[in-house]
Structure formats: structure tokens, C-alpha cells
Amino acid sequence: MQLILAVNSFRKEVRKAVLSWRTFHYTLRLSEIVAKEWTDAEHSGRFFDCSVQFMIVSRNWLAEYVSLPTSVEELTNRLTMSGLNLEEFHDVHEGLTKPDVAVDVEVTSNRPDCLGHIGVAREVSVLFQKPLTIPAAAVTEGADKASAATSVSIEASDLCPEYHARVIRGVKIGPSPVWLKDRLAAVGINSVNNVVDVTNFVMMECGQPLHAFDLDRLNGGRIVVRRAVKGETITAIDQRQYILSEDMCVIADASRPVAVAGVMGGFDTEISDSTVNVLIESAAFASLSVRSTARALKLHSPSSYRFERKVDRLWLDWASRRCCELILKVAGGTLLSGSVVAGDRLPAERESVTLRFAQISRLLGIEIPPADSVEILERLGLKRVRKDDTSATFIPPSWRPDLLREIDLIEEVARIHGYEHIPADATLPVVSTARTRRERVQDSLRSHLVSCGLSEALTLSFVSEDERQLFRPLGEISPVAVNHSSRSHENQLRQSLVPSLLQCRRQNERHGSPNAELFEVARVYLSAGQGHPENVAEPLTIGIVSGRPFAALLGVVESLANKLAPHARLTT
Asked: What share of the chain has pLDDT > 70, as a percent?
């Protein structure tokens, strides 16, 4: 049976019962975020990674952005009880001029904002009601324009929606200063040189991966973001050669790939002791593309890990300016005026979400004053655009892609208010639900087919033109097609379940299960003409793919007909 989606279980058991409740709700939210990417995930045939991963946080580094409690235990306990589980913390002395404490933070994939110290500091700021200080990223630019030194073009906008490039001339490559080495050492990153260390520092600061190219080693002095040519090769910074395929995104110069987009830079254009002129990349890459490329090449990096979880595009310019600010500080040089930007900018604000105050007590079982709920959400960065006695409407900040619906806001109110304040015997209303007759009939049919020795399959609704032409049970009916670049090869909604089931059976055969007996109960899609309310009919059908003899399969069909209508007569 084809596996469409897999959600990894949390790596370790949560240590407190109240946190288990939190984990349950996070799992629900993760699955719903997966649903938003369902189309792309189905097409790619790959899993959506919802596993828990770790972010190492330096206490000294964190203190640069927010005032911390004196006790590390108080900090870790409060963060843990708010849902940002801290696995462990330990003192760090080796290689540091000032002792530090490193904290291992579990970060679920719906919280990419916490993959940088500023994101964690933002959480601390809200929990302890302390002001948050974010560096201004102010830079002094020279008279010459960056656009005269380089150019950027994007030929694969579906894989790279936005790309920023800045140029610094006259840098002096050398060892990093002590403060920079200390910050990186505390989070387990080795020092390379002052320019590379700054790119790593900014990534760990705000969560936005950056890359520095030796501008003089870029053929033509320009950047082209494109799909790789099949069989094209690149030697990465790890000095290993990788063979690329046409579905991978690369950063190229005038003649060759110089980086695997979002994964790793190339050896030929890396920063070396002889580098004088630097091009700083700050970009956004499609998460599914980065994930599939990293897996195909078996090449994973801190950058790919972050791009797989999506970056906040509204911070691309800040990260670029911050990187240049620090490079000028530690390596000197002159920053050329302006940045070279390609791609589409995001809209300034997201869709609003309305919170009904009555829903908070209905779902949590406790009363939280509306004023407190509004204050919590505003501290989290949500912008209030409307409020009355019964509800308030907010616009979530760009760094919280997981805040999509009312239930998400209620969860935020609950975790900041404190799960420990929710009594174990809190009264929640019990709402009875009943399955419809249609649902009961479908369940009965599925159970019957399973009892006949068949396995249920859940297959994709999209097929190619060739597959559709092979199975046209209703004759020539125009297909329902979608216009989306990710489905250029399979862009038609199926008119029969047979193509999808045959493809599923073929996948089973490839994996050593040649005798898969499959069925599916699902809808097909038929163009219904202009008179139909939605212009598409979606009848529910049953499809069976089996290697049994015809007589045996006919017996299954007869028993199914008997189940549906015992007194009907089956004719062929």
C-alpha cells in the first residue's frame, strides 16, 4: 500500500504530563501545516518532515538580546512549560575566554523562528515580560553601486522566489576576533575565517542561512539561479563531487554551477586567504526542493535544515545588512551602494485571524480575561486590527507561519498564560457526534473489501494525459486540469481510479510485493458543463486492482453488490 505521508514521532518522551498535553496539540498543528503543503508533498512523493530537532543556544549570546533570569534552571523550566522543550544544558569552558552555558532546545518543524538566537530571545521576552533588543544592522555604503559590480537573474522562480546580493570590496581575510570565535564555539561551530564565521554567526543569530562567494572567481561576475542540467557536476566545499539532476536548483555564474541552492556552496568560489572581493547571498529557496536535493545528494547542512523549514522572507534584507555590518567590522573593506535583488517581494501583511473570547474558555476549561489574551498575543508580535466585547482580529507576524487559525491563537494564549495554571480537573464540554449514513455505508464497504483479502490504498488524484487516455470509462469527456508548475507532467484530475491503483501496484512490485491486491473508495472528477454549479462533478467510485482470476474477482464484485443491495440482480 502506497504510503503518502509519514509523521515522525517525537524523539524522546516528554518528561511532564502537562507537556505531553502540549505535545499532542503541537502534533495536531503540525499535521494541519502538512495539509497546507499537501499538493506539493503528494507530487514529490516524499515525506513531510515533522520530527523534532535541536538548536544549541548560548546563554551569553542570548543575553545580548533580552535580560535573562539569574538561574538557568528558571529559564529552562519556563521555556519547557511553554512548549519549547529544553533537552539539557551544560557548562562550556573549552576554547572560550568566558565560561558559557549551552542549552539544547528541541525545535519542532513548525517553529523555524526558534532556529536562531533572536527567535528564542523573543520567546524569553514574552514569557518574562522583558524588552527585546534586535541589532539595527546599520551599514555605511560607498559611492560605487553594487549593480555595477554584479547582476542577479532567476530562471527558476518556483525554486527561488527571492534573492539578495551585496558586494564588499577590499576585505582582508584572517582569523576571527575572540568574541566571534567564542560565540561560535559555544554552539559547536568551528572557526574558519573572519568572513565565513560572520555568515555562520548571522545564521545562528536570526535563522537565515547566508553564503559568501569570492566575487573574482565568479565567471562573468554574475549570479544565475536556475535548474541544473542533467549530469552537471559540482565540487562542494566538502571537496566531494556531486552529480546533479534537472530537478535540482543551483546558483551558477556565467558558465557553471557554483553552489547547490540552499544546501552547500562550491569549492571553486569559496572564501580563501586570497579573497579580496566578496558577494553576500541572502535568499529564499523552496523548502521541498531543498529537502529533496539534500536527500538525493546525501548532503545535509545547517543551511539546508533551515531552508527545509522555510525562512522568513521579510528578514532577508536584515540578514544581508547584518552580515555586511559585521564583515566590515572584522575584515574591513568597502560596501558597495545598494543591493541587487531579483524575484518577487512578499506582501507586507498576512491574512488576519479572528479570536472569539468565548472559545478560549470553551476549549481550555478556564477563564482568561479578554484583555490578558489580547496582551499575550500582542507581546508575541501579532498586530491587533480590530477588537470588540466578544472578539478581536489579529495579523500574525511574518516569523510565525504556524499561526493560521483561531485555534492556533488559543494555543498561544494557553502556553504563555501557562499550562500549569490549567487544573487537571478542568471541565470541558463533551459534544456527541454521529456518522452520516453515507459514511457508515463507506465504512461497511471498506470493511467488506478488506475481509475479501484486499488492502485499501490512498492514491493521488492527479494523472498524466497518457494515463487518462488509457482509461476512459465514460468515453470522451474533457479532463479537469490544473495550471501549476509543480504538476507539469501530472496536471489532470483522474476520471478513473484504475491508473492511480495500477501505479500503486507497480510501486509495490518494485519494493518486493508483486501480489498487492488493492482497492480504493474515492472520488473521480468529470467536467460537468457550464450548467453545473461548480462546473465539475465528483462522483464517489470504487476501484479494484487484482491479479486474481476473473471468476474470483467477479465473486468479490458480486459479494460487494450483495452488501450494497441484497435484493438487486447483477448484470454484465
From this structure: 85
